[in-house]
Amino acid sequence: xxxxxxxxPTQVLDVLGRVCPYPLVLTKKAIEKLPSGGIIKILCDAxxxxxxxLPRFAESKGMPCEVVKQGESWDIYIQKP
Length: 81
What we know:
Strand order of the largest sheet: 1-2-4-3
Oligomer: single chain
Number of strands: 4
Strand content: 25-35%
Largest sheet: 4 strands, mixed
Distance between the termini: 13 Å
Radius of gyration: 11 Å
């Protein structure tokens, strides 16, 4: 299986400037609408969300997740099973 970051995301969710819990809440809503197998790319600059809550949420739901640091922000890729 290829890296999630090397695949074209189905949706891009921009949560830049938002702090916890909004990145997680908005991500959950977006994933509900995502088709099975779809990949969401989340643009996030909240460290607690990028390094903790979003990867932990994905893991708890059995969804593959990759987090890529981009300077002062993160690109987070989650694939819906």
